[in-house]
Amino acid sequence: MRWHIVGSLFVLTLIGSMGAAEIYTPHARHTQLGLIDPNTGVGTNIGSFQQPDLRLVSGAFDNDGHFYSIALLPGNTDSQLARVDTSSGEATLIGEPTGEFLVPLEVSNDGTMYTVGYYWPEVLGDTTDLFTVNKTDGQITSVGATGVTRPMDLAFDSQGTLWLVSGGDDGNHLFTLNQATGQATMVSAITGVEEATESGAEIMGIMFDEHDTLFATAYYSSNAEFVSPLFNIDTASGVATVIGNTGFVNPHGGDYRYASTLLGDFNNNGVLDVADIDDLMVRVAAGENPMAYDLNDDAAVNTEDIRIWVKDLANTWFGDANLDGEFNSEDVVASFQAGKYGLDMDAGWAEGDWTADRRFGSEDLVAAFEDGGYGLGLRAAVNAVPEPSCAILLGIGMIGLCRLRNRR
Ligand SMILES: [Ca+2]
Ligand SMILES: [Ca+2]
Ligand SMILES: [Ca+2]
Ligand SMILES: [Ca+2]
User: What's the CATH fold of domain 22-257?
Assistant: First the structure.
């Protein structure tokens, strides 16, 4: 009985923390990913970036839930976009180095990624420009000069205003940036950081929550180890107030992840999308049982959870590759266009894997057609579900599948 009570409390605790808002940040002098509870300031380490020669200096959530950072190459010779797995901390470099020295990173609500040049001509950078970043090849395009020489972090507020915090000679100052020209306008000088830290640390990580509360962490520029509190900053006055101690040594950059109240919205972006079902299918294929993915609370993460996500939560059909609620020729065309049919290559939901084995093959088409939604329109509008006829299958050129079905 005692065990049962303890077990139940444990489960309740985990469920209570699911979907909680969290701040993700590089820490341990750019080598580890950690998360900070915005209510208490308490930090929890996630794991190493597993890039021992690189320093990751920033963090930004895209609107699909992916987390990106800027990696500084050895000797500050270059910087490169990276994507970071928020479960493990592992970082993967994207494209090629940019040829500039960059530190801040942020993504707007429409998915545009921004960074700013760090002016350090003796080493590498000779620009203070605001840049947009191509998330596919990591390359940058100038918007215009900010005029701020030591940009440290960027953050969007809920109105779409882009904020910047600076270090160096302009240290502990908040600016807003004109997104058409790049030009910076100083808003306030931050006070209260030195008093709280007695170290001369400066704010180098800023992030807004959905209510436009500005959170911040501080960094100490010398080689000394510095454990930062989480601060709350009043943007108008610049007054910084300590929320609690992160326990993190020299956190830098970082971003706030919104809490989603939508079941199955694993990437916390407010919609059930391909990224969510892909995430769930990867967990099922891996044979892990992470509780956050257990949609029916049976302590297992398996095909039944996938069925619940597709049928009950997303209210659609297996085979609906583009998740528009219908399974039709568009989905079949799109999945084949991904070019992975019959190949030993990783395939996601949009690429034809509807059986969670990370491959697109005839068994996926069988599973999708057996679900019975082909050509019936929105699942939400369908009551009776007739079997798809061989004529439909022949019509889209799946003679093999038709034979296969007839043999059953
Ligand atoms: Ca989602
Ligand atoms: Ca389950
Ligand atoms: Ca569809
Ligand atoms: Ca498959």
Answer: Neuraminidase (2.120.10)
